[in-house]
Amino acid sequence: MQIDIPFIFMALIEIFKALPLTIIITLVPLIIGFLIGIGITIIRIRKVKGLYSLANFYVSFLRGTPALMHIMLIYLGFPLLIDKLAVTFRWTFQSTSIPILLFVLMALSLTAGAYMSEIIRAGILAVDQGQLEAAESIGMTNFQAMRRIVFPQAIAISLPNLCNIFIGFLHTSSIAFIVSQKELTGATNIVASNNLKFLEAYIAAALIYWGLTIISEKVTALLEKRVTVYNRGGVI
Amino acid sequence: MIQLRNIQKSFGNQPVLKGIDLTVKKGEVVSILGPSGSGKTTLLRCINFLERPTEGEVMIDDITVSSQKGSKKEILTLRKKTAMVFQQYNLFRHKTVIENVMEGLIVVQKNSKETARKLAMEVLEKVGLTEKANAYPVQLSGGQQQRVGIARALALNPEVILLDEPTSALDPELVGEVLEVIKRIAEEGITMIIVTHEVSFAKDVSDYIVFMDQGEIVEEGTPTVIFNNPKEERTKRFFKRINREAGILESNLSSVI
Ligand SMILES: Nc1ncnc2c1ncn2[C@@H]1O[C@H](COP(=O)(O)OP(=O)(O)OP(=O)(O)O)[C@@H](O)[C@H]1O
Ligand SMILES: [Mg+2]
């Protein structure tokens, strides 16, 4: 078998058109997951009664299972739940009218939340308690002290991990093609089977993912320099 | 005026403070001395409720906060009347020197940024750090960092500043500059409660000395009385040991030189 190199370039252009959906499936879960992660972290650090074990279970289960399972469980399970509720409350609403993308985003947001909470927690614990006490000793509320003193430093400390998780989720977004999303991998599959040139199409896809990853790493390095500027005495 | 009434604190079932009563008048400088583990830090932290006492109450001016009933809001009011200087400085690492000093002025006292900057600059002047206003804590020596810590406390113009061994994390050659700053603000009439191991400094700067051991005040009085005529056996023993240690240190130093 011969590799059709010109086709790789054609495929590259074709597949690239699916980039916006990949970005959505990567970024939306990370943003929602960040908020979930903060919530979970607060619950776990404050040991909020009732929610504490639930939060621990959530993190343990979602980190303990592949993201693909989360997508399948939500994709298969959530419609059942909606339809049950619809019958009970006499809604006219049907689960089939929910776009599949929404299930994917839900599932991956939950996945991201579990990973984010671990990263944020590690960041917060890495900021020494003394600064929090100093802030509280001058009359700041715990919330003010967390938001203004602890959190900015926790994020700066966590940044390398947050960027790693971005790259991880960029790659994870590819499994959305299982539930027929036309993101980069879904598009690759279409290009490949329409032209019966599978290897070429997947080489093209791999190049795109690789390029995106390299760009992310470069951006990370820049960002990191910026947010930890205080450690180098203001020199960027 | 600050009044502590029957402050008790236990960690688990280990009693660390066994009923401390203390009154500090406005403008007074009170030093707390005592062996390691006697509860000095814990007492200081009970005053601003960084540690909630198990029993007793803290009164500052017109407000009284009791150990059990003290609400979040009352504790916050109490903390707005106090400020603390920590052994490990505890500066906000992601903020510059002047931002460290401005933080409380803006967030707690709701000053405008310009007002806060002006006030902060005045206080930095007092601790001799105007040139370092835009430096970050990592760029400062320990002595400079502690002077920022003092400036951060002083800027809020609190009823009392609580200092927990402000010089004991410092290299010996940096102790002097910090003690000097503390002495200067003591002369301005700022009320202070200082936990320290620097006996001669305490003698010099204090209006009143409290000697603690095993969670109790063993003896208290003016420096002259406590240092020259201690009544209690434990106080005498403590000073004897301190003097001996200082003596050994000195003879070591002279043998090195
Ligand atoms: N958070 C805590 N949990 C349990 N025990 C504590 C805690 N903080 C202090 N203690 C105990 O309380 C006692 C008094 O401690 P404290 O730090 O107040 O002593 P100190 O007089 O400040 O000593 P030093 O001169 O060494 O600083 C010690 O036995 C200490 O082990
Ligand atoms: Mg102590």
UniProtKB/TrEMBL annotation, chain A:
<keyword id="KW-0813">Transport</keyword>
<protein>
    <submittedName>
        <fullName>L-cystine transport system permease protein</fullName>
    </submittedName>
</protein>
<dbReference type="InterPro" id="IPR043429">
    <property type="entry name" value="ArtM/GltK/GlnP/TcyL/YhdX-like"/>
</dbReference>
<dbReference type="Pfam" id="PF00528">
    <property type="entry name" value="BPD_transp_1"/>
</dbReference>
<feature type="transmembrane region" description="Helical">
    <location>
        <begin position="98"/>
        <end position="116"/>
    </location>
</feature>
<feature type="transmembrane region" description="Helical">
    <location>
        <begin position="55"/>
        <end position="78"/>
    </location>
</feature>
<feature type="transmembrane region" description="Helical">
    <location>
        <begin position="154"/>
        <end position="179"/>
    </location>
</feature>
<keyword id="KW-0812">Transmembrane</keyword>
<dbReference type="InterPro" id="IPR000515">
    <property type="entry name" value="MetI-like"/>
</dbReference>
<feature type="transmembrane region" description="Helical">
    <location>
        <begin position="199"/>
        <end position="216"/>
    </location>
</feature>
<keyword id="KW-1003">Cell membrane</keyword>
<feature type="transmembrane region" description="Helical">
    <location>
        <begin position="20"/>
        <end position="43"/>
    </location>
</feature>
<dbReference type="InterPro" id="IPR035906">
    <property type="entry name" value="MetI-like_sf"/>
</dbReference>
<dbReference type="InterPro" id="IPR010065">
    <property type="entry name" value="AA_ABC_transptr_permease_3TM"/>
</dbReference>
<comment type="similarity">
    <text>Belongs to the binding-protein-dependent transport system permease family.</text>
</comment>
<keyword id="KW-0472">Membrane</keyword>
<keyword id="KW-1133">Transmembrane helix</keyword>
<feature type="domain" description="ABC transmembrane type-1">
    <location>
        <begin position="19"/>
        <end position="220"/>
    </location>
</feature>
Automatic annotation (TrEMBL), chain B:
<dbReference type="Pfam" id="PF00005">
    <property type="entry name" value="ABC_tran"/>
</dbReference>
<dbReference type="InterPro" id="IPR017871">
    <property type="entry name" value="ABC_transporter-like_CS"/>
</dbReference>
<dbReference type="InterPro" id="IPR027417">
    <property type="entry name" value="P-loop_NTPase"/>
</dbReference>
<keyword id="KW-0472">Membrane</keyword>
<dbReference type="InterPro" id="IPR030679">
    <property type="entry name" value="ABC_ATPase_HisP-typ"/>
</dbReference>
<keyword id="KW-0547">Nucleotide-binding</keyword>
<keyword id="KW-0378">Hydrolase</keyword>
<keyword id="KW-0067">ATP-binding</keyword>
<dbReference type="InterPro" id="IPR050086">
    <property type="entry name" value="MetN_ABC_transporter-like"/>
</dbReference>
<dbReference type="GO" id="GO:0016787">
    <property type="term" value="F:hydrolase activity"/>
</dbReference>
<keyword id="KW-0813">Transport</keyword>
<feature type="domain" description="ABC transporter">
    <location>
        <begin position="2"/>
        <end position="239"/>
    </location>
</feature>
<protein>
    <submittedName>
        <fullName>L-cystine transport system ATP-binding protein</fullName>
        <ecNumber>3.6.3.-</ecNumber>
    </submittedName>
</protein>
<keyword id="KW-1003">Cell membrane</keyword>
<dbReference type="InterPro" id="IPR003439">
    <property type="entry name" value="ABC_transporter-like_ATP-bd"/>
</dbReference>
<dbReference type="GO" id="GO:0005524">
    <property type="term" value="F:ATP binding"/>
</dbReference>
<dbReference type="InterPro" id="IPR003593">
    <property type="entry name" value="AAA+_ATPase"/>
</dbReference>
